[in-house]
Amino acid sequence: MSKFFVQRSQILDDSVVLEGGDVNHIRNVLRMRVGESIEICDGQGMDYGCVVREYRDRQAILEIVSRYPTDAELPVRLVLYQGLPKKDKMELIIQKAVELGAAEIVPVACNRSVVKLEDGKKEEKKRERWQMIAEGAAKQSGRGFVPVVAPAMSYKDAMKRAAAEGRVLFPYENADGMSETKTALLDAVKDGTTSIFIGPEGGFATEEAELAQKSGGRIISLGRRILRTETAGLTILAALMLLSECKQTGEDSSAGK
Length: 257
Fold this sequence. Notes:
This protein is α/β, with parallel strands linked by helices. Helices cover 36% and strands 26% of the residues. The protein folds into 2 domains: 3-69, CATH 2.40.240.20; 76-256, Alpha/beta knot (3-Layer(aba) Sandwich). The chain is built from 7 helices and 12 strands. The strands form 2 sheets. Strands 6, 7, 8, 9, 10, 11 and 12 form a 7-stranded parallel β-sheet that branches. It has a 5-stranded mixed β-sheet with strand order 1-3-4-5-2. The longest helix has 22 residues, at 120-141.
């Protein structure tokens, strides 16, 4: 079933008013007829089962049939701090991170980032595009809200913010062994916020790893293979998503220990 996000102001007592591009999409792209079912989300964790009641000039009026909390969100808040990569890799990373349950994606300017921060207007335009990609991925994957793509920030500021919010995982190519990784992942799916730092193509500089450790970050390995920047973050997000889902359903009691 197709899913669309709306503002709370568009939800009335027994109906939802769709406007703008969404109307064109359901009417001319999906070719939905009156009486067909559609799912609406208020972006705050509540879903609405609806049917198309009528089309007006630039609106689609939906009748609310049922209301229910979304069941697609993880019990832990995962924030991906992604070192700015080259070309269009960030778009892929954002799309897949949203599908895997990330609550927020923060672009980070690292020491070895080839891509540098531009002037404010260009950065904001780029972020607006990234936010649109996040919204599309949230619709496709049935999320209960649209994750935020934050403005890009320096590594130092990003680490300070993450350390203040909760747990920090720092996959690092020079880390040894997997026992710490296993323990850290199990701890990371407890309630609260877990931040994951991923370096750019050149990896993290030594001083960045040292700052992460001083800030309370857990330095972990992702195995013996060298992963690309667009692979590393998705690898750890996928692992955390599965552990969190198992914990939430009670299928793996060790995830909560």
